[in-house]
Design brief:
The complex is a heterodimer of chains A (744) and B (165). Helices cover 6% and strands 57% of the residues of chain A. Chain A is built from six helices and 42 strands. Chain B is α+β, with helices and mostly antiparallel strands. In chain B, strands 1, 4, 9 and 10 form a four-stranded mixed sheet that branches. A four-stranded antiparallel sheet of chain B has the order 3-2-6-7, covered by helices on one side. The chains are: A mainly beta (744), B alpha+beta (165).
């Protein structure tokens, strides 16, 4: 370890020496709105073909230090404004080049740049699949504590407690791995044991944006991308010392009914986050600590979390940088699996009353990136994700699991010609699980992928890709997968583009599904392993269009069809089995075993409308998704899938005051897993209603009063509507939240 | 203004409905229909009793049956009563069985075909099950204030389910 550190320091020192030997100057300036002349804060100013750049401060000012002597092109961008290039910037040794940059307001569809759809930066209009984004600003305004909360208002997405469902891909089954792939800065981030997404392991306050790619994405990202990909992109560093804090406290209101008031004491959900970041020469760093205590509106559902996040970035030269990040989360959580019954919906079943789950989760990653030339860029990155949890009941430990997951990847992007961009790479993973429920098993995998983007005409862009994956789990035979993708974008004019895509997806069975060997402490039924499970597959087709009907109205619509094969579900069967591995006799009775049981097709349509009113003082955003989720095996609707999802939000902004409202409607789940309800057993588990939630938010920025602080007040679930996302789990009651965000 | 009108309409629409609510307190139990396969009823002289039973214990043996019936509180309950019967020679009968809140792992229909009282004089002729082949018992849970409907049982005196003893 000591040697590694010594070599690393020498390596960094060599590069920084090389950098310092080159003559340098600097670039400073101000970015303003071309129409109003107001300074623009948060604008990105970068030097093309290098990693050098800066973000404007609240006065619209920026400064880029240590720019090597030479001639450059500068790009300035900001959401809501047209990206602009300034070329012919000549930097002389020791001199400061001063610039005044003016940006024109953009039409809505030009707002967003995404990186997930094609593994490189692209305008949203150039992408052949449906992509939605959630920004850091939205996350902060909604006071989302965990990332799953932030995704509840993305069109086509709905969550069943913590399990994400994109256009009906997932449904819900406890213990089955996710059918949506979560990426953290581009690398897979699902747990090694259950193959699930663990939202709490992601530092929400360090998220720059979330990109949600809808439809199968295994041709670029491999296993688990059956229904879509969620990529969480973390923030970069400030150019000068910056201290950010966030304080919040929520008070849960009482439920509407006296039967559900299990305590007279007020229940709070409070937290604090503190982040310090700075950039000194080539070195940028960020350290963040967070604490959350949620007393919950339900009995034995308290949540205590400590989180620590740090990131370090070193510019080895103007064209090379290395980023190292580390994150640790410690959590204890009451074991509220489901309610006692609907009359006592805020109390857990007796068996869970004294249960507790304790987890320690952490990840450490690196990312090396280099511009070899203007046309060729490559990166190497890796991440270790450690996951340790145990649950206990009245102090007796029931289940313990430790999983270690390593992911690495090398990727290159080569601009063969202006109209032809090639992206290719290799990826690999190794995971090791040790758990009393799943046994001790390793897994190893590798993949190669290639994608070509071809601009056939100025209007027509074609994307084709292919990925080959191979995975081996424990002593089971290795499994190979080949996944293609194809996409076309046709720009009718500057305002309208049409898109069509085809993609395939797959998911390897998780170690938990293959090897689970006993019952959990919350179920009365024996669970048996099944090492014969086959790989799940999906194929997605989509046709869509996006158009700015006027400069302030943007409409996007898509129709899609996704087919799934070999979906794994826990199946209740009458079988003969040994009550324990050492037993010589067999008994006959009901058991749960994961099986490839479902062949499904999900067809639907999605439409989104964004409108700016009254010179952008008022904005509205409406998204509606209709799905017809068909279980082709049983010739009926798929379990746990809603047919209608409608989100609507509106925001009113006057100076430093902002108010906004969100409305969420998810139609009643028509079919659930009745065996799960019966066998768990979950009393009144079949009770469910449509989801109808209204949230209100108000915020005021005190910057003009000389305080760099924003005060916010949110009312979540304004109408105190009672519903379940997951069977037997009453969703949060109305809550009132006060937030304080500041920057120094 | 239109925008605010739309929001107001949505909020008004939403505010009429409060979603889930606790059900009124009911006497705990379960109910459903027992279907008797046509043409399988045995002769009257072998029908001493026909009962519905609900046992918290499974599997059963002769000791567990008698201790389950006689313990306090019992773990096996009989419907309509030990000295009563389900109606004979019918195609189906609806029932409503009040039982204490608990998980019942074995629910079925029992025929007593001889006057003597021992396990050799009784047999299970139908069982509440999710599967027909073989029809093995599936548990149900009855909550404190819960009546579980839809517990339907198929009985064929010619095709008996696996016997617990």
């Amino acid at each position: 370890m000591k040697k590694i550190i010594t070599y690393s320091i020498l390596f960094l020192a060599c590069f920084s020496t090389a950098l310092s030997q080159t003559g340098t100057g600097s670039i400073s300036g101000k970015v303003t709105d071309a129409e109003t002349q107001n300074p623009l804060a948060g604008a990105n100013v970068i030097i093309k073909g290098t990693f050098l750049g800066a973000v404007t401060n609240t006065h619209g000012e920026f400064k880029i230090y240590k720019v090597p002597v030479g001639t450059y092109t500068i790009e300035a961008s900001l959401i809501g404004y047209q990206r602009k290039l300034f070329s012919g910037i000549i930097i002389k040794q020791g001199e400061e080049y001063s610039l005044s940059l003016q940006l024109l307001p953009a039409e809505i569809q030009e707002k967003e740049i995404v990186v997930t759809a094609s593994r490189r930066e692209q305008g949203l209009q150039e992408v052949p699949v449906s992509v939605s984004t959630v920004t850091a600003k939205t996350i902060a305004e909604r006071n989302n504590i965990t990332l799953d909360d932030a995704l509840r208002y993305v069109p086509g997405v709905n969550l069943m407690q913590d399990q994400i469902n994109i256009r009906g891909s997932t449904g819900y089954s406890r213990g089955v791995g996710s059918r949506v792939l979560l990426l953290l800065d581009g690398l897979p981030f699902i747990t090694g044991d259950t193959g699930e997404i663990n939202w709490e392991a992601i530092p929400t306050h360090q998220v720059e944006r979330i990109e949600v790619v809808k439809g199968a994405g295994s041709a670029l990202y491999g296993s688990s991308a059956l229904g879509g990909v969620v990529n969480v992109i973390t923030k970069d560093f400030s150019q000068s010392p910056e201290l950010r804090f966030r304080l919040f406290s929520s008070l849960y209101d009482k439920p509407r009914y006296a039967e559900w008031q299990w305590t007279d004491k007020p229940r709070f959900n409070s937290g604090a986050m503190l982040t310090y970041s700075d950039k000194s020469g080539p070195l940028g760093y960020l350290v963040s600590v967070g604490r959350t205590v949620d007393e919950s509106y339900r009995q034995n559902d308290t949540y205590h979390r400590w989180s620590l996040y740090s990131k370090l970035k070193y510019d080895l030269s103007t064209s090379q940088n290395l980023t190292i990040s580390a994150n640790f989360v410690r959590r204890t959580h009451g074991n509220f699996f489901w309610w006692r019954d609907l009359r006592e919906a805020t109390r857990p079943a007796d068996s869970q009353l004294n249960g507790n789950v304790e987890s320690n989760r952490g990840n450490i990653g690196f990312h090396y990136k280099e511009f070899v030339s203007d046309k060729f860029i490559y990166s190497v990155k890796g991440i270790y994700f450690g996951n340790f949890w145990r649950d206990d009941s009245a102090g007796n430990v029931n289940n313990v699991s430790a999983s270690h997951l390593f992911n690495f990847e090398g990727q290159a992007t080569y601009e063969i010609a202006k109209s032809n961009i090639l992206t290719f790479g290799v990826a690999g993973n190794y995971d090791k699980v040790n758990a009393n429920l799943f046994g001790s098993h390793p897994g190893v995998g590798g993949a190669v992928y290639v994608q070509d983007e071809l601009e056939l005409t100025s209007q027509l862009r074609l994307t084709a890709g292919l990925r080959f994956d191979m995975q081996k789990v424990s002593s089971l035979p290795s499994v190979a997968q080949l996944n293609p993708k194809l996409g076309i974008v046709y720009k009718l004019d500057n305002e309208t583009s049409l898109r069509a895509s085809f993609g395939s997806g797959f998911r390897y069975p998780g170690i938990s599904e293959l090897y689970i060997t006993s019952s959990t402490n919350v179920s009365q039924v024996v669970v048996l392993p099944n090492t014969d499970l086959a790989v799940e597959h999906s194929i997605s087709y989509e046709i869509g269009a996006g158009s700015s009907i006027t400069p302030s109205v943007f409409v996007d619509a898509a129709i899609f069809s996704n087919s799934f094969d070999n979906l794994i579900e826990p199946l209740v069967q009458i079988k003969r089995y040994k009550p324990d591995p050492t037993s010589t006799r067999e008994v006959e009775g009901p058991v749960i075993q994961f099986e490839n049981v479902t062949k499904a097709r999900i067809q639907g349509a999605e439409v989104g409308v964004k409108i700016d009113w009254w010179k952008k003082h008022l904005s509205s955003d409406v998204g509606y998704t209709y799905t017809w989720p068909e279980d082709l095996t049983e010739q009926t609707i798929l379990k746990f899938r809603p047919r209608h999802i409608l989100y609507a939000s509106g925001a009113l902004t006057f100076g430093n005051f902002k108010s906004s409202a969100d409305v969420r409607y998810v139609s009643r789940i028509e079919r659930i897993d009745e065996n799960l309800v019966r066998l768990a057993p979950i009393i009144d588990g079949e009770q469910r209603v449509p989801i109808k939630v209204v949230d209100l938010r108000f915020s005021y920025d005190l910057i003009d009063e000389g305080l760099p602080v924003r005060v916010g007040f949110n009312i979540n679930n304004l109408l105190n509507y009672h519903y379940v996302e997951l069977i037997g789990n009453l969703a949060p009651v109305r809550s009132f939240t006060l937030t304080l965000d500041g920057i120094w | 203004m239109k925008y605010f009108a739309v929001i107001a309409i949505i909020v008004l629409f939403y505010s009429c409905d409060h979603g889930l609510a606790p059900p009124p307190a009911v006497e705990p139990g379960f109910g459903g229909t027992i279907y008797f396969a046509k043409g399988t009823w045995p002769p009257q002289d072998s029908l001493v009793n026909v009962w519905l039973f609900a046992s918290q214990v499974y599997p059963l043996d002769s000791v567990k049956i008698f201790s389950g019936l006689l313990s306090n509180p019992p773990t096996i309950y009989i419907y309509p009563a030990l000295d009563g019967n389900l109606p004979f020679f019918v195609d189906s009968v609806s029932y409503s069985f009040k039982v204490p809140p608990a998980t019942y792992r074995y629910i079925g229909v029992l025929q007593r075909f001889r006057d003597e009282i021992n396990v050799r004089s009784i047999r299970v002729v139908g069982v509440y099950s999710t599967t027909d082949n073989p029809p093995l018992p599936i548990p149900i849970s009855v909550g404190d204030f819960q009546f579980v409907p839809g517990i339907n049982i198929n009985v064929s005196f010619h095709k008996l389910p696996p016997q617990p003893f």
